User: Fold MBL fold metallo-hydrolase from Candidatus Heimdallarchaeum aukensis.
Amino acid sequence: MSLKLSESITKISSNFILLKYKHQSKVERGIGSPNSVIVENNEEIAVIDPASWTHNLKLFLKYKNKEQIQENYSVRKIALTHEHWDHILAGSYFQEKLDFEISSSELEKEAVEDEEILFKHMFGDYPILEREMRISTISKKVVKKTITWMWGPYYSMKVSNTLKEGDTFFDEPQIKVIETPSHTSGSLSFYVPTDKILISGDLMDLETGVGLDLNNPYSSVEAGLRSLEKVKKLDIEILIPGHGEIVKGKETIKKLFEKRIQETTSIYNKIIELLETRPTTLRGLVIGVFPDTRWKINLYYLRKYLIFAYLNEINKKRGLNIEQKLNKTQISI
Ligand SMILES: [Zn+2]
Assistant:
């Protein structure tokens, strides 16, 4: 499969650089191309989401080589918006070869340090719809191969510092930590008051997402809506999402947050409506909410996980009936 790519190293403001790449074809678009952000001053350098070996690390080394890093910066550090492969993988290179210290949220430290825990967070322990959602041992191998092909290998790394709400990750310019659970329970955003920049991680996925990007059993609709309301109150001129293009302008950004809140709420309501009409299957819900998904296998799978996260929330709030009938899992309310 040929990958048509565009890659860029862009100066966002005096201290901030964005490393970004994008697959041009529709097939590869769905696999996601995470953004990396570099922040630096005369002595210190930090990378928020080192991301992939395949693209982000290559771009970083084009921007600064090993010698420049060693000579120019006495402080070198990494912050992770969340634990997922596409955002963390190259972290092990930064730690091993360039002597960067890694910070993550306390909740995700273990998953960053141990891929088995990361797998469990992503695919295991589904309290409902187990048969439909659990990934088998064989397909786990396929997932690992696919991840390595897309973003590079996983090597264990050490998280030496954990971040929480209100912490300052970087001093000059000041970067503040904001807890924004949604996509994962420990998801963090980073806010720069002087430059009015928000680095949102996958709270905002502008590449493949509709509403909130909820793709695992720990994704939460309710927490996500609260996180969107929280960042909406900040004074932001530049939004750097986890995936997709940066967005500029206070009003445009505010409207975007509102749109995501509205999309998320209407997906939730649509699922309730479908469940109240008649018992249905997970597939029935995916097609019912997103009719265009019927013939698009890659989108179908992404959206199956998305719908699953909503079902988790509905189950918590009002309970679901899940029955096995003729090899089909029937869901009703
Ligand atoms: Zn993610």
